[in-house]
């Protein structure tokens, strides 16, 4: 923008001091911006030796170009620049153009090289996850599983951060949707992997438990592979991904070609149009052949398909005549034929949409009670193998219905991202159904096993969650069809307020306008810098499983998502999402305060009073943030004030965290040898009951494995989606 201003300035005979000063300011601004940019590039070069030479050359070129622009715009002190020996933008405008080209070229090169670093980081993180998964798959003892799963949890959090940032940066909505789908699979499968592996370890000779566990590992590997395909823009074995065409996209393209005949009678052949219609009508067979399509819808679709063929025949006939003789009457006949053909296609589109969405609405309503899942849980606990077999057949039927629903919805989804979401939903039902069955069979064989019961619960929750997502997807498909696109719903991974906070009222989301976002941009940048500082402090800790580090990581990640909100990016799409995130952030801060209290009780040092003083500030700050986030407001102005307050209070907490972490790290190093603050993880036992802990609480179960609750990782850290 600044360079364009310089290049496009008008050469006037008289140049005022104000103009000269403005030009100089712009030149200096460009040079300063380049300097900051190059500093980051050089830091990346120092950390990545294989790119150091290329990156250094590009940075040197960019810096040189920035300095040249600054010199050529150094005109404010010259009364008569053209008569001075000093070369300026007025005497050598081509010099500025050359410098600008060099600058843009070198900056682009730095960005490309930096992007390669990011891709390498994601691939390296994926490889670490895969390596740990292989260890988990082969483990034979609970104690060994505890240690490895703890490592796996940390690696998954790192992978989530990297891929979440990447998803935000993707410009292609189709890739963004695919990334969201893959990360949603990883989110849900992480908890499934935990319970499925525990069940397999508890019942090593159970074939259904082994099948259940193998299915989770296989699905996670596929999801990891797809993330890498998206990041590297490649396909395994070099094949291209060819997504099946939907009826909507087919009709849209067909209508564009037909309407194009108004401008050009010769730009395509009649065979092309006929082939396009044949493909569309072939896809309508998915509806007419489906056992779940009503008789009325089936008849209407067949009638409209027949009519579409007739309208096209009439159109082709008039079109061919018009090519030979362009009379007024023929052109009018052609216009009528075009309109009738397009109208018929619109009616066909409306009919298939009605067929798909009415089926989906009926199925989702019918399955909201989850009766089959409840029956499987009851009969499994009873050890009734015969009844379990009966209900697994019913679940298989339900799965086929839902898979068919997803296939039909894909045809009418209206956008490529929604098509991908339908495909993801279809895959989820296809895979989760058999996994529920194997989990139920395991429980029926071992009815007294708490682990087997817990495992079945996790898979059933995944099924119920997908059904809930389908309701939201159906609403969005209807919004697209009716032209009221509105606020885009992110239903793959955004924390659901209703599930995690019963006190949150379902208020209408308020979206900040551009001017208001600009007001909080500065505050957001300050918050971003603080998250970087906190992350840097936590990286210095040797033990990344330390409870203080775990809570700090969660808070940093949530603060970062709030920063992204100030830029109009990330998973937090509305102010309600932001307020919900602020509440969870405050809760995590309270947990950190408790961990700090425990830590302070175990250390003895002159700095301990300072730690206590600083830690005591944390609880009231978190309570204030929680009160602010929960306070109901109405009206745009009040909402914006609340947004500003939430981000400001989050920033204050992060500032305090920046002071607490180095102090804790210092105390820990001093006291580590003496008081053994970091105790080794206790051996795992199925029936472990800690003092004051509900053994059935999922959060505490996960903490037994040495990492913060996976649900907290997923929810609080906006773990897997799109951002």
From TrEMBL:
This is Alpha-catulin. One of its GO terms (biological process) is cell adhesion. GO terms for molecular function: actin filament binding. The keyword Electron transport does not apply. It is found in: Cytoplasm. It comes from Penelope pileata. Transmembrane segments: none annotated. Keywords: Cytoplasm. It holds the Pfam family Vinculin. Belongs to the vinculin/alpha-catenin family. GO terms for cellular component: cytoplasm.
């Amino acid at each position: 923008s600044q360079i364009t201003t310089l290049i496009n300035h008008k050469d006037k005979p008289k140049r005022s001091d104000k103009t000269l000063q403005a030009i100089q300011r712009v030149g200096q601004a460009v040079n300063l911006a380049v300097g900051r940019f190059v500093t980051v590039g050089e830091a990346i070069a120092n950390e990545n030796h294989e790119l150091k030479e290329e990156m250094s050359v590009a940075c040197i070129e960019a810096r040189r170009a920035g300095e040249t622009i600054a010199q050529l715009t150094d005109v404010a002190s010259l009364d008569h620049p053209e008569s001075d020996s000093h070369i300026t933008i007025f005497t050598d405008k081509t010099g500025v153009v050359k410098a600008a080209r060099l600058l843009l070229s070198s900056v682009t090169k730095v960005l490309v090289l930096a992007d390669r670093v990011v891709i390498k980081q994601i691939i390296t993180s994926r490889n670490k996850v895969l390596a740990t998964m292989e260890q988990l798959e082969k483990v034979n003892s609970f104690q060994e599983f505890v240690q490895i799963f703890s490592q796996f949890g940390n690696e998954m959090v790192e992978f989530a951060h990297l891929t979440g940032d990447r998803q935000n940066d993707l410009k292609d909505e189709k890739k963004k949707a695919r990334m969201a789908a893959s990360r949603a699979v990883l989110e849900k499968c992480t908890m499934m992997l935990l319970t499925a592996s525990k069940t397999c370890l508890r019942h090593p000779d159970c074939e259904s438990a082994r099948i259940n566990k193998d299915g989770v590992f296989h699905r996670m590997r596929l999801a990891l592979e797809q993330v890498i395909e998206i990041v590297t823009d490649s396909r395994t074995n070099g094949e291209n991904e060819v997504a099946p065409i939907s009826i909507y996209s087919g009709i849209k393209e067909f209508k564009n070609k037909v309407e194009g005949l108004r401008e050009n009678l010769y730009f395509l052949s009649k065979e092309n149009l006929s082939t396009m219609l044949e493909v569309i009508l072939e896809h309508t067979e998915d509806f007419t052949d489906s056992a779940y399509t009503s008789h009325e819808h089936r008849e209407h679709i067949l009638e409209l398909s027949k009519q579409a063929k007739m309208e096209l025949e009439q159109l082709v006939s008039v079109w061919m005549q018009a090519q030979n003789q362009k009379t007024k009457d023929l052109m009018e006949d052609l216009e009528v034929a075009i309109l009738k053909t397009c109208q018929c296609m619109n009616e066909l589109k409306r009919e298939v949409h009605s067929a798909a969405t009415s089926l989906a609405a009926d199925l989702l309503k019918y399955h909201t009670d989850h009766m089959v899942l409840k029956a499987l849980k009851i009969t499994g606990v009873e050890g009734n193998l015969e009844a379990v077999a009966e209900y697994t057949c019913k679940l298989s039927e339900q799965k086929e219905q839902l898979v068919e629903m997803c296939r039909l919805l894909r045809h009418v989804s209206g956008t490529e991202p929604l098509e991908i979401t339908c495909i993801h939903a279809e895959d989820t039902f296809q895979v989760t159904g058999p996994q529920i069955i194997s989990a139920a069979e395991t429980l029926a064989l071992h009815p007294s096993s708490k682990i087997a019961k817990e495992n079945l619960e996790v898979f059933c929750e995944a099924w119920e969650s997908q059904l809930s997502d389908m309701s939201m997807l159906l609403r969005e498909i209807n919004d697209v069809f009716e032209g009221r696109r509105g606020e885009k719903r992110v239903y793959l991974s955004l924390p659901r307020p209703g599930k995690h906070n019963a006190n949150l009222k379902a208020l209408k989301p308020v979206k900040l306008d551009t001017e208001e976002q600009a007001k909080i941009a500065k505050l957001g940048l300050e918050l971003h810098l603080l998250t970087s500082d906190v992350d840097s402090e936590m990286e210095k800790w040797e033990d990344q499983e330390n409870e203080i580090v775990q809570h700090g990581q969660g808070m940093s990640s949530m603060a970062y998502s709030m920063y992204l909100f100030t830029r109009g990016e990330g998973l937090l799409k509305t102010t309600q999402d932001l307020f919900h995130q602020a509440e969870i952030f405050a809760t995590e801060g309270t947990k950190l305060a408790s961990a700090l209290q425990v830590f302070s009780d175990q250390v003895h040092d002159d700095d301990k009073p300072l730690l206590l003083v600083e830690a005591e500030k944390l609880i009231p700050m978190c309570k204030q943030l929680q009160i602010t986030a929960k306070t109901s407001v109405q009206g745009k102005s009040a909402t914006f004030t609340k947004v500003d307050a939430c981000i400001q209070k989050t920033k204050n907490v992060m500032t305090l965290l920046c002071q607490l972490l180095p102090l804790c790290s210092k105390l820990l190093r001093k006291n580590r040898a003496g008081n053994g603050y970091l105790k080794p993880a206790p051996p795992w036992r199925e029936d472990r009951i800690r003092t004051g802990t509900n053994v059935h609480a999922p959060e505490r179960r996960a903490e037994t494995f040495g990492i913060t609750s996976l649900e907290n990782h997923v929810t609080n850290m906006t773990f897997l989606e799109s951002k």
